[in-house]
Amino acid sequence: MVKTGCPRSAGSDILTRVMAQRRLEPTQAAIRYMCERFALGGHCDGRLTPIARGAMGRIWRLSLSGRDYAVKELFWGFDEAAVVREAALRDAAADAGVASPANLRTVGGRYVCTLPTDLGGADVRVFTWVEGRQVEAGEPGVIRWVGHTLGVLHGLRYSYPHVPSDPWYDRVPTPEQWDDLLTRGRVDRRPWASLLEQRLPLLNTLCAQVKPLDPAALIYSHLDFQPQNVFVDRAGRHVLLDWEDAGPSMPDRVLAGVLTPWCTEDGVVYADRVREFLHAYRLAGGTGRMTGMESFSANLAGYLNYVSAQASFSLDHTQAADMREYADHEASGALANPSTTELFGEILRAVEGVRRHGTCESGRVDRGDSV
């Protein structure tokens, strides 16, 4: 699936529903306020250092005397009930052996704190800090861990039957919406407009291949399981980060969304990784079975909606200039590197090789391994 940090609508409009921008100001007053609200204790004079950002938020390192925390500044508000469900899934996974940063609660029992307006008014979350480094997909043992971890998550069979899926993953812009976006981009002279015009036939073709989710087949899962969200900590443990996109999806679509970033590089599918991943996934209780190109619907929808959302946001002159510039850059980059069904077809062929023959190009697995 597309990289996290994508502004998404919470309702029927799949294009961006923007909010007035609020910022976390890295002042001592803001630090003290967060320390009080999250009961961090002790001496609360410290330092906030920006670490990373996406379109959805920014990660800060909160350094206090002898201890550190991760602070996530949320750019687009939050759904308290969704945050509670996400934290419950993370806790269940932790009980099953999946290492991840712990969610800290406020003194009022909530996971999100809104700072006063005079301190910037930002919505923030606080987590335990993970000291480590980001993994590379080709590192020894990583693919096995990824397959095992996703299998554990799916083996939990976590479900909220009355929670609808996010339309981000199976509803895409219509041809008329793309045309309107192009017209507005031209009028506003956005840097992505000419590339959008070139890509329109491809975008409409990809949109036509996105199939709706089956409400009866949904499980709750981590939905942004990609290399940038896995660290190795100082103890050598793999740690899964960024659970905020957790939500309902079909197991086969989550499986496709994880196989793509972990088992491909620069358009090449590594069949040995597919084999190792699927073997570990099955042994850990994974239930997903890829059925065909429809299994990649969430990959396609995520890509298409990311382009649309970023381009739409860049057209909103009420937003901060740096945020609009970031959106321009993201829209242009996504249009320059479109999702390709050819790559998905290669992944399916590798998966089919494991299912039918128990073989991949660089090795064998037991013929009992099903996919």
UniProtKB/TrEMBL annotation:
UniProt key word Transmembrane helix: no
GO molecular function, one term: kinase activity
Domain Aminoglycoside phosphotransferase: 48-279
UniProt keyword terms in alphabetical order: Kinase, Transferase
A Pfam family: APH
This protein's name: Ser/Thr protein kinase RdoA involved in Cpx stress response, MazF antagonist
Organism this protein belongs to: Actinopolymorpha cephalotaxi
